[in-house]
Amino acid sequence: FTQAGQASYYADKFNGKKTASGATYRPGKRTAAHNTLPFGTIVRVTNPRNHRSVKVKITDRGPHAKGRVIDLSRKAARRIGLVQAGVAPVQLKVVRAMPGSR
Amino acid sequence: FTQAGQASYYADKFNGKKTASGATYRPGKRTAAHNTLPFGTIVRVTNPRNHRSVKVKITDRGPHAKGRVIDLSRKAARRIGLVQAGVAPVQLKVVRAMPGSR
User: Fold this and answer.
1) What are phi and psi of A12, to 5 degrees?
2) Which residue range(s) make up the domain with A61?
3) Shortest CB distance from B10 goes to which of A11, A60, A64?
4) pLDDT digit string (tens) for A44-99?
């Protein structure tokens, strides 16, 4: 599974809130929201503008906006230089699927 | 309850998909995603740039991005002139709370 589109990141107000998977959102963990990948899937997210990448675990659902493919935790966003821009193009590649998922 | 912030709207690919409330997303209905209001709450969404407003029912959760307060269905977005801009400032006002909700 690979996908290209735009990424944004969680506002700090979500700190301590429950995600769709049941896990609590923590800005310092490398997690993300994706609309279809099973919870627990590990995805490599690459920012082609600076060639930086980060691996994140899918723990939540979203985003809804057109062209948007993933919402990153603050730590993951910082790793790929997304915090200043707010939104940036990314490439996604699943590096570990959940057992039993397609 | 009143709130100000930015609104975006659902991509068309969500047509027929289940929302967090269990209801199916339909672009032609006036619905929205909000992070805290109970499902079923009716909210008036006003675009101060053109003074247009629409009433929507909360059926889903989201958005995550900073400053973003609501994601509108396509029909609701069109009513307030949001489709071209993609994102716009809005004001929210609850006009009918769910019974028993605070």
Assistant:
1) -65, -25
2) 2-96
3) A64
4) 999 999 999 999 999 999 999 999 999 999 999 999 999 988 999 999 999 999 86
